[in-house]
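ok so heres the complex, two chains, lmk if somethin looks off
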Amino acid sequence: MSDVWTTITVLAGAVSTLAIFSLLYRENPVYRFFEYLFIGLAAGYGLVLTWSDVLYTMWYIPVFQQGAWWWMLAFAAGLLYYTIYIRKLAWMSRLLIGTMMGLSAGAAFQQVATQYAPQIAASFRPLLPPTWLGVAVRGDSPNLTWQQLVNNWVVLAILVSVMAYFFFSFEHRSAVMRKTANLGRWMLMISFGAIFGQTVMARMALAVSRLWFLLVDQRGLAGPGG
Amino acid sequence: MLQDRTRHVLYLLLAAAIALPFFTGTVIPPTVGPEAKALYKAVEAVPNNKIVILSLEYEAGTLGENLPQTRALMNHLMKSGKRFAIMGFEPIGPVYGQIEADELAAKWHRPYGKYWVNWGYRTAYVQTLKAMAKDVAAAIRTDHRGVPLSKLPVMRGIHSPKDVGLVIDITPSTYYEAWMAFFTGPAKVKMAVAPTAVMVSDIFPYLDSGQMVGMLKGLAGAAQYEALVFGRTSRERGITWMTSVSMTHILIIALIILGNATEIITRRRKAVGGTA
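and the predicted structre for the whole thing:
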């Protein structure tokens, strides 16, 4: 029975893959159908896993098998969301939405502090060599190599120029400001170019994974399931 | 019509370029970058009394990159006998993780519950991570099938964040920021990330600041990691797939040169015809 089921699922996977690839030939109803099927499946999967991995293990078992009745209060609070559909009781949903927004705002403040503060500190880098013509210049960074030194200057130049590009508090009239911002724009473009190149690579990787499933994978068409 | 045919021929050429390494067994040995090396060392340095968390946040759309990354890391963890847990804040990630881990567990003889555990899909990532930062076992409580963690040998001695040796977020999204903000940052736990290639540029600052100890850069990162685990010429999934991607790059570059050469020749012919 399990072999039959495996065969059916593998064939369904192969047919779905080929149906999506059919867009490469031209737009067609088969492609559309499988596109909607994919979206529906993903939503359905999410719903089932929310029950099996979260609600069942963390709510149903404690409430109905371990007697932790107080978790029913969470269920009641959750139901408040649905009062949004009843005009007279809609204010109750706002209690919950407001609370959740307040919690999210607090978490966002914490996130900014813990996520970005170390980066601000890390952007202050040594810009002078440890020694210059035999004279000690920076005793606090004796192991700094010249490659790191060049790198630090490059980081500083890009950081300042890109910040200048996004600095809108006054008009960029002076030549220094204009040229610095222009350099920042070039740096951004180079960065976006690199990201685009990486995106192409990512799309190729996806194509590789589907062809692997169709041609080689022992859990795919080439395996016992196919 | 002719343009359509050209497009279809190009797609077929692309498919052939991808499939070629599958059947010839040819691999292009990857050059291992410092980010992959750093992650490898970080995994090696995790002591046996600590657990590694693999947070799998991907869905079908990025399997081409995130699945080989997962596989490469699981291979290393199982080969070296490290304990690890898989979980995710997207529904399907832990399901894919379970499928890969089941296959590799049979290969390395690392049974479920003793060497690895699936904590499953978790919602409300901020609240979950904040709770984990206080007490990991109390926040998770059961595995994905509802078995209490206290009954699984893999969880023996794992309670507080101090018992977590490393968090690796395998992701096409920004969940790694939440991990940093609410778990690894406050609890001082080491963290690494295995993002899709398009995200790589965003993550370098975190490596520079020391907030992350390593990174696997998309599929290329997976191939590099496999090179560290199995050797550069091994025919593991990531290295084979990256060879296919490299073949597509060669094809695209060749087609760009061909297209430009054809255009130049056509223009010259037209110019010569015009003057005659």
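quick notes: Chain A touches chain B through 47 residues (CB under 8 Å). thats all i got rn
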